Amino acid sequence: MGTRKVIGLWGGIGSGKTTVCSALEGQPFRVDVINADQLGHAAYAPGEAAVDEIAAAFGSEVRAEDGGINRRALGALVFGSEAKMKTLTDIVWPIIKQKARQRIDELKASPLQSDQGQLIILEAAVLLEASWDELVDEVWVTMVDEAIAKERIMKRNKLDEDAATKRLSSQMSNEERLAKLKELHSLPHVVIWTNRELSSVENDVLSLARKTLNLTLD
Questions:
Q1: CA of 201: how far to CAs of 5, 116, 127, 151, in Å?
Q2: What Pfam families would the database entry show (predicted)?
Q3: Helices and strands: H and E segment counts in the chain
Q4: Which of these, 44, 53, 55, 93, could form a disulfide with 130 (CB 3.0-4.6 Å)?
Q5: Kind of pairing between the strands at 118-124 and 30-35
Q6: Cβ partners under 8 Å of residue 35, min gap 6
């Protein structure tokens, strides 16, 4: 019987989280990715518990025509305001955590399907900030030089340099992330630098996955 592990994939915008997930595709072991951003978007849907709380906190103008939350209108209100952003995250982060826990439990309850094991990846830019690391067995952190991250998001998101700089400045720096890692204490963690050749990153990710699942390295 193979090993089953839950990995918290933590990293800022443009740091290479998608690259790590892509490197794990098509392997003999099973890989399931839970994207925290998608869970967050689901929390804004009509009928979700967060909708009324968010509307009460920020006003009816953030409601969408379908009864959910207009994410663009909400973003315009909270972006650039630390206090408003905290109000929003205090509402949404616990709900996302609950959804992630439920999905992890569902995956753990499903048949393993591979004697090579299974990785359940919780991909989240705010994994540690939101205390979602409580849900995982170990943490993989993607990092990249800020200049490279800026180039990536300018190209991918079609942003000008000023907009890309603002996006980057709204999140933790590499130094802050490394300091935050020290708070994990006994939780295993590893840093994956992605400012290298793609093949080098992919090889390291696969080696890390095999080690995590106690598989023989080729």
A1: 21, 22, 21, 18
A2: CoaE (PF01121)
A3: 9, 5
A4: 93
A5: parallel
A6: 123
Residues comprising the chain, all counted = 218
Domain boundaries, the chain: 4-212
Whole-number CA gyration radius for the chain: 18
3-state secondary structure of 216: coil
* Backbone torsions φ then ψ of 191, nearest 5 degrees: -100, 130
In the block, residue with structure tokens 């400012």 = 195
Chain segment 73-100, per-residue pLDDT in tens:
998 888 778 899 999 999 999 999 999 9
Q: Which amino acid is at 127?
A: L
The correct answer on CATH 3.30.450.20 for the domain covering 4-212 is no
pTM score of the predicted model: 0.90
Q: Cα dist. 107→80, 112, 137, 177, 212 in Å?
A: 37, 9, 15, 29, 18
